[in-house]
Every structure is written in C-alpha cells, then in structure tokens.
Design a protein that fits this description.
By secondary structure, the chain is an alpha/beta fold. The protein is built from 18 helices and twelve strands. It has two domains: 109 residues, no CATH class; 208 residues, Rossmann fold, CATH 3.40.50.150. 44% of the residues lie in helices and 14% in strands. The longest helix is centred in the C-terminal third of the chain and has 18 residues.
Length: 422
C-alpha cells in the first residue's frame, strides 16, 4: 500500500517520503500505546468515555504519536493538527485533549499488572507477553519487547558464486555505500544507512542478496555440501535456497517447494541474477508427484515453516496488531502437517532442519517434541558442533538454536536439527 501511495505521488521528494514512512510505521509499531494515550486523554478532558480496546479515531492516534514523538507545546500541536481533528471536537475540546495528552504520557507506567503494562507499552498481544514472562521474567520480557519495537538493520549476504567479501566490499564502497561485516554470519554484510539496493550495479550483477543475518545461520545449519540433494520445503522467494546453492558451490541439486506461484516467480528472477543453476523450483501443481519421486532421497530437508512471525516484528510491526492465539494454533496445525509430509523425503542418515521466525513455544519446541513422539526414527542433533566450527556463539545448554534481537544482531529465529536414524 505504501508503494502504491508513493507511485501515485511522484512529486514527493526523498525527505517527504522518509517522514511519511517513519510516521506511518511509528504509528503502527506503537498503535496500542497511542490508543491508550488517546483514550486516557479523552477521559481526562471529559470529552468521551472509552476503553483502550475501543475503536479510537486515527486522528487522535496521530495526535498521540506527534505528542509522544516531538513533545511539542499544546499550542503548536493544536495548530499542527487542526485539519485532522474529528468534527465533533470544538476548539475547547481540542485544547483540553492536547493538554491531557501532554500531562498523561507516563500514565501507562502506573499500571500494576505487568502483562497489561508491557502489552500496552510495547503494543504487544497480551497472550505473547504472558508467555514470555512465564518463560523468562518481567525484565527480560521488557528487553525483548524493546528490541522487537526497534528498527532492524538492513543486512545482506555476499554471493560467493560470483565474488568474495573483499571484492564485494570494494565495489560497494566505489558506489558510495558504507558497509561492514556481520558479527555472526561469515558472508553477511550490514548497510550503515537505508538505501535502494536495486539501484546498485553490484546488486544487479548478483554480487549480494538482502537476507537477515539469522536467516543466513539457518541455512548454515543444513550443512550443505557440493553434490548433495537438498529439499527446501517452504522456499518462498528463495533467500535460503540461494544461500545453500552458494554453499554447495553450485554442485548438486536443490528441490524448492512453495505453494505461492508469485513467490516462485520471484525466486526464478533471483536464481538467474545470482547465477544459480542447481535449483529445481517445483510448481504447486506438481508437488504430489515430486514428493513421491523424492521419498527417502534427500541428504537434507529444510522446513522454514510458515509461522506467526513474532521474531520479525521489527520488520513487520503490523503483524502484531491482528495476531491472536487462534491464529497461532492454526499455524501449529500447518507446521505439524508440513513436518509429517516432508520428513518422508529424508534418507536414512540424513538431516531435517525445522525452523521458524517465531518466538513462541507452540510453534517451536512443542512442534518438535510432538513430531519426535510420532516419528521415533528421528532424533535431535545438537547444533553446537557446527556452530562452533563456524565460530558462531550459541547457548551451551539448549538443544535448539534460538536467536533473538535482544541478545544479538539478528531477528528472532528458532531451529531444531534432527537426524533420521538408519
């Protein structure tokens, strides 16, 4: 929608676009907190009764955002927002509302229930905050919520099929782009400023791809090697597919599955630009036939399962607005079905990597434990030896890989490495 908005308003300059985007995503990222401020201000000003769950007019949410962001004087805020005010509010009500906003910005801190307080303060669904507090504690949960409400860095991966780190960095510097190496992923890079990568010659030549650092680590857990047969069960537009092809030095075969034809079309474009020739994208119409042909044939299967995306709220803050426990439960059913379906492709001695960008146990540990109970031929393999070999620090206790933005530079990811025993 944002792209369509800009497409129809080409007269907007770069600064205008940046301000509009920052305002829009700021309101989305903090919407529940802003609604809380707005409702509290209406009640203090004696304008309307309400509850934070009510449908608060967007104009009042915008007023709360501007007030919390810039902390302007009441007079300047009234003047700035005049054309946006709801019609039922006269001048006296507007000034009373703004005064109440400025006076009540810290009222959320007074809430005694930690679940409710953190849920409103960070605009998180209450059921998520409740789970995190039970798994960690209030302080760690607040650290996690703070990180997920921040802005993620723009990260990429150097395509080693076409170049190496040093040459790619030199080319990017020659194009006026400031980059640095990622802390964990061996072929990752971090852009110091946001930019339009599609305008770069190095991108057009396929020298790098945009990919989160945590996503790159998931690809490494598959441990791809030249000559392998690998299945990417939920390939999407091919970020991890491309990475595994580079790790395999374009030797072997990767069978890529996805139900979205548009994503598969996007993958083909990326494969061509990256110079990858070992990937066989499987159209949705041929999935059943391919599953039959590949039974017990894959050295490794990657299931990057569809999920709630709680680990990527930094990049997609709108996802948390409509997320419910029922939606998470539906994802869990889908994840179980995908595990059952694609695990049959792993050959004896092969590995199955189950991954999500979720930070919820129902989509992670519970799914893996349920799968292991139903499929006794599979067992958990610790990811630590592989991560240690790559120089990537990991939790010395957990048998799973868990990445979180409050503990490192990545989005939130979970991964379990399983082996199919002979």
């Amino acid at each position: 929608m944002v792209r369509l908005f800009y497409r129809d308003r080409r007269y907007l300059g770069a600064r205008d676009r940046r301000v509009i985007s920052e305002t829009l995503y700021g309101m989305i990222r903090h919407v529940r907190l802003l609604e809380f401020y707005a409702v509290q201000a209406r009640q203090r000003a004696g304008i309307l009764a309400g509850d934070p769950a009510d449908n608060v007019p967007a104009e009042l949410v915008y007023a709360a955002y501007i007030s919390s962001k810039a902390r302007p004087t009441s007079e300047s805020l009234v003047e700035e927002l005049l054309e946006f005010w709801p019609r039922e509010m006269d001048e006296g009500n507007r000034r009373a509302f703004v005064d109440a906003l400025n006076a009540g910005r810290d009222s959320v801190e007074a809430l005694e229930n930690p679940v409710k307080r953190l849920s409103i303060m960070y605009s998180m669904p209450e059921f998520i905050v409740r789970e995190w507090i039970s798994c960690y504690d209030v302080l760690v949960t607040e650290e996690l919520c703070t990180a997920l409400n921040g802005q993620a860095a723009t990260t990429g991966r150097v395509n080693t099929l076409k170049t190496d780190m040093e040459e790619c960095f030199r080319q990017l510097h020659s194009e006026g782009v400031e980059v640095e190496r990622t802390l964990l992923a061996p072929h990752g890079l971090v852009f110091r400023k946001r930019l339009n990568v599609s305008a770069l010659n190095s991108f057009a030549r396929g020298w790098f791809e945009l990919q989160d650092e945590g996503s790159q680590i998931i690809s490494l857990l598959v441990d791809p090697a030249p000559g392998m047969t690998i299945v990417d069960a939920c390939a999407g537009s091919g970020g991890k597919t491309l990475h595994m092809a580079a790790l395999m030095k374009n030797q072997g075969r990767i069978h890529a599955f996805d139900l979205g034809d548009s994503r598969m079309s996007r993958m083909r474009e990326r494969l061509s630009r990256a110079g990858v020739t070992i990937v066989l994208p499987c159209p949705a119409s041929d999935i059943e036939g391919s599953l039959g042909r590949l039974k017990d044939c894959a050295d490794a299967v990657l299931i990057d399962a569809p999920c709630s995306g709680t680990g990527t709220f930094r990049r997609n803050p709108g996802a948390k607005i409509a997320l419910t426990e029922e939606i998470v439960q539906r994802f869990a059913h889908v994840q179980t079905a995908i595990l059952d379906r694609y695990s049959t492709l792993v050959k004896p001695g092969g590995r199955l990597v189950y991954a999500t960008c979720s930070l919820l146990e129902k989509e992670n540990e519970e799914r893996v434990n349920e799968f292991l109970q139903a499929h006794p031929r599979f067992s958990i393999v610790s990811p630590r030896p592989l991560l240690d070999r790559l120089g990537i620090s990991s939790d010395p206790v957990s048998e799973f890989l868990k990445l979180s933005p409050h503990r490192g530079p990545t989005d939130g990811f979970f991964a379990a490495v399983l082996m199919k025993n002979p």
